[in-house]
Amino acid sequence: MASRLEINFIRLLSRCESIASEKRGETEWRLEKYVGALEEMLVALRKSPSKPTPEVLTEYTRKVDFLKGLLEAEKLSSPTEKALANQFLAPGRTPTIANERMPATKTVHMQTKARCTGEMRDELLGTGLSGKGTSETDLRNRRGLPLDERQSAAELDAVLQHHHNLQEKLAEDMLNLARNLKNNTMAAQNIIRQDNQTLSHSMRQADLNFEKLKTESERLEQHTKKSVNWLLWLMLILVSFTFISMILFIRIFPRLR
């Protein structure tokens, strides 16, 4: 069972993830304070006698580091720097509470990346954050951005798009691989099933042939015995007939003197 300290840590972590997923103003101070308290509780959790397993501690550390990195990225002034900093953040891999389908830090990461990308595009296109457009002076100021920053933003957008395309291609390849593996498994099962049926049929046929061979062997043995008996009687009759014929011949034709 989880200790009291771990339960409080999980509750505070879930609260921080909930605050991070909401749109916050510049005067919002709770998240930073809560993350500081999370760090202190994590240190105490590592020293606790009833500390969690190393895998769970690693996941907790990963989530706390993600929230710290998120706060540091939000303090950056340029949307390009924010997008680049968020690109290197590593969200948690498992849900914090049981009713989450997806880890909350992963959802926050996706939302933050989308928001930073939108701000970066707004800056490049010269649109205001309020969505009402800008004046001609603002447009001239936007066009007057240094060339290096514009190139960096364009390169970052290209890198993000490239990674997105790679992820889609990888997911499609994995889906095709799983589909091919399933088809091959089904084909192998069908072949094995047919081989088993053929083997069973061959065994039944072999049993029938063995029974037929046994029957024919018995019949042949009986026929052989009958043939020997008839031959013996025939030889006896022939010998008897020959003996009687010789006696009659001697009686009928006496020896000449």
Question: Average pLDDT value?
Answer: 77
Q: Tell me the distance between the termini.
A: 138 Å
Number of strands: 0
> Structural class, judged by helices and strands?
mainly alpha
Number of H- or I-type helical stretches: 7
Biggest beta sheet attributes:
none
Please bin the fraction of helical residues.
over 70%
Q: Give the radius of gyration.
A: 48 Å
Any low-confidence stretches, pLDDT <50, length ≥5?
127-145
Give me the strand/helix succession.
HHHHHHH
Shape: rod-shaped
Structure explained in plain terms:
This protein is mainly alpha-helical. The chain is 79% helix and 0% strand. The longest helix has 106 residues.
Question: Main attributes?
Answer:
7 helices; 257 residues; rod-shaped; single chain; mainly alpha
Produce a short descriptive summary.
By secondary structure, the chain is an all-alpha fold.
SSE diagram, text form:
Layout: H1 4-21, H2 30-47, H3 54-74, H4 79-87, H5 104-125, H6 136-143, H7 147-252
Helix pairs in contact: 1-2, 1-5, 2-3, 3-4, 4-5, 4-7
